[in-house]
Amino acid sequence: MGDVYSTELVTSSDPTHPANLIPELCRLFYELGWVTGTGGGITIRHEDKVFIAPSGVQKERIKPEHIFVLPYPEQSPSPHTDRVFLRRPEQNLKESACTPLFWNAFDLRGAGSCIHTHSQNAVLATLLWPGPVFQISHQEMIKGVRIGGNGKTLSYLDTLVVPIIENTPHEEDLRESMVAAMEQYPDAAAILVRRHGVYVWGNSWESAKTQTECLDYLFEIGVKMRQLGLATVLDSE
Amino acid sequence: MGDVYSTELVTSSDPTHPANLIPELCRLFYELGWVTGTGGGITIRHEDKVFIAPSGVQKERIKPEHIFVLPYPEQSPSPHTDRVFLRRPEQNLKESACTPLFWNAFDLRGAGSCIHTHSQNAVLATLLWPGPVFQISHQEMIKGVRIGGNGKTLSYLDTLVVPIIENTPHEEDLRESMVAAMEQYPDAAAILVRRHGVYVWGNSWESAKTQTECLDYLFEIGVKMRQLGLATVLDSE
Amino acid sequence: MGDVYSTELVTSSDPTHPANLIPELCRLFYELGWVTGTGGGITIRHEDKVFIAPSGVQKERIKPEHIFVLPYPEQSPSPHTDRVFLRRPEQNLKESACTPLFWNAFDLRGAGSCIHTHSQNAVLATLLWPGPVFQISHQEMIKGVRIGGNGKTLSYLDTLVVPIIENTPHEEDLRESMVAAMEQYPDAAAILVRRHGVYVWGNSWESAKTQTECLDYLFEIGVKMRQLGLATVLDSE
Amino acid sequence: MGDVYSTELVTSSDPTHPANLIPELCRLFYELGWVTGTGGGITIRHEDKVFIAPSGVQKERIKPEHIFVLPYPEQSPSPHTDRVFLRRPEQNLKESACTPLFWNAFDLRGAGSCIHTHSQNAVLATLLWPGPVFQISHQEMIKGVRIGGNGKTLSYLDTLVVPIIENTPHEEDLRESMVAAMEQYPDAAAILVRRHGVYVWGNSWESAKTQTECLDYLFEIGVKMRQLGLATVLDSE
């Protein structure tokens, strides 16, 4: 299996190739405060190949040669040992601990990309909404979020509902409660993890990124509204 | 009509050509948090040609070839079907949903440019000022805003008044209430849209951008002052 | 006087030449939110020449050829008509409205540079300290501010005192009250202008910039402390 | 000793050489608001050589030739006069006033790097936690912090404890109280200095930087939670 370390699958002169996009987007997400301290990340699936960044490295400094390529769907995401790799870095790196969670987005929603942030807006939303869901209505930015993350966009008159699951000491142990929340809330475009962050998916990386931006905006303004004593959900007329 | 896809109208080596400025300014506005999640945008009118970005694309990644060119004024902005294009992108893109609103600024104020942001400062201002207008006085930055958006600059002793209209599920349906507000408040340099954002115009892109920056500053400091329990409008001596 | 439009005085390959530094620093100050909406600015004096940016232009887009050069001290800063220029831009531009205020820093403190910002931290400080001075003590960053702006640095045990003058409709009319405040508070490194911003000076541009950063930090943390109900001035032991 | 001014020890084409990394990281820290006004800094130790930036210079403008190289451990960090230099800049510069504090991290924890910030998040944490320690629990980002700064990472179920020492007028006088705090809290990854900032170390610059980012995030969210009236330490089940 010597050629699993080949850089062929992560070498491209096309700036929109996943191996080039992931480093570029991770730099952007770092600037947005979403992936500081090596946290968070993004996966992009291109047909039967999944591109994933390594765990525990500075996200703004990832290079194409650091990226893992896994086959889809020909493997079980759990247990997370004995994973099959089409390509892995030579360095002593591990694939992102989010891998089983990313797989949920592929398996349950047919996602082409999934983004995980530790944004403080997401974490504060989970603290100020102590129940099972974050909710907000009557915000223009709701229109940038899609039903189920992969369907039609929400209307301005829809209330956005994002399930919140409880955090676990090991990231991979979130897999089952994330599945349960995705099944209970089939229209949800994302899953918040209390005291941790958020997982957002979409049919493409563009869609996942757009929805992550809209949701982060809505978490942020929701938190500010609660601080100001403003109602975040209004009755629709 | 094959040549409507020609890139001629959006190709220029001049960095101040609208087809080059719109991508550059959209990147800046993205960094300012004004156009995340594909929201917001800018139009620049050059005599009888209007340059407009597409709808639903990542604003920080727009390229000149994505830009629409429409004739001015030889068309009705409404209904928003059957628009005439001097140039449109080959990709399956739609012109910005703000187009009828931008047209209001051209028609009613002779504007040369109009900017639309989803800035949280603007949205929070519409929430903390639940009435028909946002008002603030005695701030130096008021002096950067123009009477009617296209006239003389306000004085430090003037109170800034920005009308707020109610949001609608479809952006183009804001057209008539925006017209009504512009007619009722002929001195206003901008129209806030509750729970949505703001439209700001000027004689040129420089003027529209400067006024948007001043207004966003004033929305932000107004919101902070309300949070701190400070009066935002003082009696003039 | 045809050669007053020559670019010779503002052309240099040295990146630390004032004509190159002013554009670079204005871009930085724009990113810091200090000079949005064409507000604020910086002057650098090099012996008997004063370099000043134009008024009412986008500060992050200034180029060396936009810069004015005035002789020092051979002219009266007031009235601000009939100014003498060693060099002025060909465009129809006016020198910064701050010019008489910058001259105060040269005349009264021998400053080599003066920075004016519209930072919201400065403005909020003037609102939360409604009296004649802003004060804060027991902050490490106080050590970056100099006595009188041009002397020794303050000690951690010193209380920082920054006078606040009242704003006027025309910027040049601040000149006399700024002089009065500088005379009344000879140890002050800066003058706050209520509802407007701050003027900070130093022996060199590096010193003016360092002190502006320290003061802006102190205004910001002072405002946050007031919001949190924390005392901003402690008794020294 | 003429060759102490040679640039040989600070010249490398390798971007990960300490003399190249320190300027790059200082620019990043400036953008993060950690080292404005010349405050803060970073040291990197490479075996028996310690690379340190100068004191009192604009951190975002440091160049490799400004960097000091000191031998490790062959010198006493105190008194801070009569230091031995393998290399020093020709300019009239002093090594960072943090030097004795950096030495604590080398001596007591075998650190390979130490970062000092004046981040407002750190300072506000010391104000809202008036006792001897900052504490927070049940935050995912705790997992990015290491036991003692150089050991295993903390678990999600661990409570993060960061000692707070009182500030002194002269930075070098913090040395002994920092030693005492490091001895009293052997598991601490950092030392907060009240009304001043934080010192964070790690086995490598990557580890020191990652931990500084995680801690700064935790200080920030801790401060926000206190503002919102939320408990920052929960009982573990």
From TrEMBL, chains A, B, C, D:
Transmembrane segments: none annotated. Pfam families: Aldolase_II. It is found in: Cytoplasm. The keyword Metal-binding applies. Keywords: Amino-acid biosynthesis, Cytoplasm, Lyase, Metal-binding, Methionine biosynthesis, Zinc. Binds 1 zinc ion per subunit. GO terms for biological process: L-methionine salvage from methylthioadenosine. Zn(2+) binds at residues 116, 118, 196. It catalyses: 5-(methylsulfanyl)-D-ribulose 1-phosphate = 5-methylsulfanyl-2,3-dioxopentyl phosphate + H2O. The active site is at 140 (proton donor/acceptor). Gene3D superfamilies: Class II aldolase/adducin N-terminal domain. Residues 20-223 form the Class II aldolase/adducin N-terminal domain. Its EC number is 4.2.1.109. It is an enzyme of class 4 (lyase). Substrate binds at residue 98. GO terms for molecular function: methylthioribulose 1-phosphate dehydratase activity; zinc ion binding. GO terms for cellular component: cytoplasm. Pathway: Amino-acid biosynthesis; L-methionine biosynthesis via salvage pathway; L-methionine from S-methyl-5-thio-alpha-D-ribose 1-phosphate: step 2/6. Its cofactor is Zn(2+). HAMAP family: Salvage_MtnB_euk. Catalyzes the dehydration of methylthioribulose-1-phosphate (MTRu-1-P) into 2,3-diketo-5-methylthiopentyl-1-phosphate (DK-MTP-1-P). Belongs to the aldolase class II family. MtnB subfamily. This is Methylthioribulose-1-phosphate dehydratase. It comes from Pterulicium gracile.
